[in-house]
Amino acid sequence: MAVTGCSQCIKYMLFFLNFIFWLAGGVILGVALWLRHDSQTSNLLMLQFEGTQAPGTFYISVYVLIAIGAVMMFVGFLGCYGAIQESQCLLGTFFTCLVILFACEVAAGIWGFINRDTISTELINFYDTAYIKAVDPVETTSKQAAAKILEVFHETLECCGKGDDNELFTAVQASVCPKKTNLVDLLISQSCHTKLRDLFSEKLHVIGLAALVIAVIMVFEMIFTMVLCCAIRNAPAY
C-alpha cells in the first residue's frame, strides 16, 4: 500500500464510485433488455403491413444501450481493480475508457435530443398508412390486413382512431377498436397519435435521467483517477 492519508481516502472513494458505476452499467443493461422485450413496444414494432416492417429506430437505440451497459460493467470492474491494486497502468486505461465513454454519451445525448420525436413520428406515419387503408369503403385484402394492424395498435395502447372521428372511421370503429364496457371509457376515447407520443416520451425521460446521473458519476471518477494516479506516482514506494 503506497498511498496514505488523503490519497488513501481518494483511493477508496474511487473504488466506491466505480462500484456504483458497475452497478449503473448493470441497471442500464437491465433497463435496455426490459425496453427490448416490453410488451407494448414489441407488439407494435413487430408489425408488418404490405411488406413494410414497422420502424425499428427504437430498437437500434435499445441495442446501443445494451452495448453501453455491458461496456460500463467492464470499465467499472477495471476501475475497481485498478484502484485497489494502485496500478497506474490500469488507472490510465480506465481513465481513457471513461473519456471515450463520456464523449460517446454526450454525442448520443445530442443525437437523442435532436431526434427525440423521430421514433413516435415514424410509428404515427405507419399507423396512418394502415388507417387510410382500413377506412377505405372498398373491400380488399389490404383493407383486412390494415384492420388487423389497427386492432393491435388500439388494444396495445388502449386508444381508438386519430381523434378526428370522420364518417369513414365511424363505420369501421366497432370492428377495430377495443370493446368498451365502462361508461367512462365510452365517453373518453384517446387518440392513438397522443398515446404513441406519450409512450415513447416516458421511456426517453427514463433513459435521459439515467444518462445524466451516470455522466455526473463519470466526471467525479475522472477527477479522482487523475488525483490518485498523481499520488501513486509521487508516493515514496514508487
State the gist of this model:
The protein is built from nine helices and two strands. It is mainly alpha-helical.
What does this structure look like?
The protein has 238 residues and is mainly alpha-helical. 79% of the residues lie in helices and 2% in strands. It contains 9 helices and 2 strands. The protein has helices spanning 6-37, 39-45, 57-85, 88-114, 118-134, 141-157, 167-176, 183-187, 192-234, and strands at residues 48-49, 52-53. The protein has a two-stranded antiparallel sheet with strand order 1-2. Strand 1 (48-49) and strand 2 form a beta hairpin. Helix 1 packs antiparallel against helix 3 (57-85), helix 2 runs antiparallel to helix 6 and helix 4 runs antiparallel to helix 9 (192-234). The radius of gyration is 25 Å and the shape is rod-shaped. The chain starts with 5 loop residues before the first helix and ends with a helix. The model has no long low-confidence stretch (mean pLDDT 80).
Which properties best describe this structure?
238 residues, mainly alpha
- Mean pLDDT metric: 80
- β content, as a range? under 5%
Shape: rod-shaped
Secondary structure: number of strands: 2
